[in-house]
């Protein structure tokens, strides 16, 4: 009854006292306040309600400091075990008007401690940004999982409700696959470490229950190496399919193993992206102009004054090191020191399935926001369709490398056949003339194609001037003997 008689400002002060969102219409504020009374009516909360009620009817004035510009605040959920800021004994809330927030400090006693100076601010846990997830709303800021007893298995509940706008965003979003919406409510868990943005990290024995059903949590990657423990892909956990997409309250319970390490959980409304969408965004904003790429080539090939060796060129393969296919969208990280590229299409697809964001060329981090498409190599790929490798020259120009493969097909020295080293054990030649050119040509006409025949003739003509004439003769006689036996 006391809560139902509150004004909007009273409701906002109560909700702000426990860290819940103060935005919305009066009936939404009343609903949140009643949920608070129902699920977390601790002594401190009851005292606050009583104080506000008495103030309401005693017409007492509150202590108000100078107004400050209103900041955008995302809706927040209430975590039952963490309704208060453990890092500070200051309970801070606001009286919201249309355009102004009036911060209010209350001299209440929390955990038996008095009010501390307002300068004390606990650093917040931050999670790393994930390329495949665009955050739309923060439903619950990263909040520490605090054990309630000495048991190894702990349960931490959390209650929250979606706004009508958030429900519509989910319902109207497209399906990535049957039953999986692109707009989702996800749970993220990380170490409680405020020194830097944290990657997702699950605690031991994790289980997540949404309302009345357990949610699927990613399993372990199998390990093929003996003695190596399998790794677990720690990703955002999608809760959407088990939630009430209405004004109803959703209850999430995280079960976790308490083994000394501290973890924090956060809830977010996100839009999940696909590799095709990230590729299109990269093509839109991530192409590096050919002239800038050319300048980079010249810079890398510039002669170092301290070096006695001048670099005349550097070779770059047009084959992707990931899939051994010709590059289609040549890509690398701005932080990479090499000119060699990998294919953005396959790189994004691989990280969509198993996110590592490591460069396949130098094995160093190549995060999405550092990727660039090489405009110069893209141009070269369209102009050079008959070579798998090019060489950049000092002046920034390039030339295709084709001769290397051709030379490897025509040996520069005679090939010795096993078993033919005995000079006295020559096989008889059918024509008996011993002319290397003709013998080789006769055999090649039967067994090889025309291009190989020309190479053999050229090779034998070179061998005529060689002092060791019997070696090619022996090889040709052996081949003719094999052909005639067939």
TrEMBL record:
One GO cellular component term noted in the UniProt record for this chain: nucleus
Annotated region described as Disordered, given as residue ranges: 60-85, 427-486
Catalysed transformations (reactions): S-ubiquitinyl-[E2 ubiquitin-conjugating enzyme]-L-cysteine + [acceptor protein]-L-lysine = [E2 ubiquitin-conjugating enzyme]-L-cysteine + N(6)-ubiquitinyl-[acceptor protein]-L-lysine
Gene3D superfamilies to which the protein is assigned, alphabetical: PINIT domain (2.60.120.780), SAP domain (1.10.720.30), Zinc/RING finger domain, C3HC4 (zinc finger) (3.30.40.10)
Keyword line: DNA-binding, Isopeptide bond, Ligase, Metal-binding, Nucleus, Transcription, Transcription regulation, Transferase, Ubl conjugation, Ubl conjugation pathway, Zinc, Zinc-finger
Official protein name in the record: RING-type E3 ubiquitin transferase
EC number(s) on file: 2.3.2.27
UniProt superkingdom: Eukaryota
SMART domains on file: SAP
Skewed-composition ranges (Acidic residues): 452-469
One Gene Ontology MF term: ligase activity
Domain PINIT: from-to ranges: 113-273
Entry's family note: Belongs to the PIAS family.
Key word Zinc-finger present: yes
Compartment(s): Nucleus
Key word Cell membrane present: no
InterPro entries: PINIT, PINIT_sf, SAP_dom, SAP_dom_sf, Znf_MIZ, Znf_RING/FYVE/PHD
Domain SAP span(s) in chain numbering: 3-37
Pathway(s) annotated for this protein in UniProt: Protein modification; protein sumoylation
Organism listed in the record: Caloenas nicobarica (Nicobar pigeon)
């Amino acid at each position: 009854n006391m809560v139902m008689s509150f004004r909007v400002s009273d409701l906002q002060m109560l909700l702000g006292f426990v860290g819940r969102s103060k935005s919305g219409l009066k009936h939404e504020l009343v609903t949140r306040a009643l949920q608070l009374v129902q699920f977390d009516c601790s002594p401190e909360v009851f005292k606050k309600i009583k104080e506000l009620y008495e103030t309401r009817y005693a017409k007492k004035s509150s202590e108000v400091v100078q107004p400050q510009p209103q900041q955008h605040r995302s809706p927040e959920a209430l975590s039952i075990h963490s309704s208060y800021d453990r890092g500070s004994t200051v309970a801070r809330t606001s009286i919201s008007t249309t355009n102004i927030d009036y911060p209010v400090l209350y001299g209440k006693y929390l955990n038996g401690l008095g009010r501390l100076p307002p300068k004390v601010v606990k650093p917040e846990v931050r999670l790393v940004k994930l390329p495949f997830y665009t955050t739309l709303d923060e439903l619950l800021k990263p909040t520490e999982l605090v054990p309630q007893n000495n048991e190894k298995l702990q349960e931490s509940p959390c209650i929250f409700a979606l706004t009508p706008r958030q429900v519509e965003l989910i319902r109207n979003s497209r399906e990535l696959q049957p039953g999986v919406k692109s707009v989702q409510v996800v749970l993220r868990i990380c170490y409680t470490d405020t020194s830097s943005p944290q990657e997702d990290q699950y605690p031991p024995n994790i289980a997540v229950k949404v309302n009345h059903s357990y949610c699927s949590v990613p399993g372990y990657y199998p390990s093929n190496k003996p003695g190596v423990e399998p790794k677990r892909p720690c990703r955002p956990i999608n809760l959407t399919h088990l939630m009430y997409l209405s004004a109803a309250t959703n209850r999430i319970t995280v079960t976790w193993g308490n083994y000394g390490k501290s973890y924090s959980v956060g809830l977010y409304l996100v839009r999940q992206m696909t590799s095709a969408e990230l590729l299109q965004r990269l093509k839109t904003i991530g192409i590096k102009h050919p002239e800038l790429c050319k300048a980079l080539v010249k810079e890398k090939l510039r002669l170092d004054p301290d070096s006695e060796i001048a670099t005349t060129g550097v070779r770059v393969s047009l084959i992707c090191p990931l899939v051994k296919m010709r590059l289609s969208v040549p890509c690398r990280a701005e932080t990479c020191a090499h000119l060699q590229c990998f294919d953005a299409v396959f790189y994004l697809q691989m990280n969509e399935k198993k996110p590592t964001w490591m460069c396949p060329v130098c094995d160093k981090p190549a995060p999405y926001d550092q990727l660039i498409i090489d405009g110069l190599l893209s141009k070269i790929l369209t102009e050079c369709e008959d070579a798998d490798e090019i060489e950049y020259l000092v002046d920034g120009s390039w030339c295709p490398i084709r001769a290397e493969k051709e030379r490897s097909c025509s040996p520069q020295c005679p090939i010795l056949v096993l078993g033919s080293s005995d000079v006295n054990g020559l096989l008889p030649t059918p024509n008996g003339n011993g002319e290397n050119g003709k013998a080789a040509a006769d055999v090649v006409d039967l067994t090889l194609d025309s291009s190989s025949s020309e190479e053999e003739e050229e090779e034998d003509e070179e061998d005529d001037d060689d002092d060791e004439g019997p070696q090619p003769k022996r090889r040709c006689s052996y081949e003719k003997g094999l052909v005639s036996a067939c």
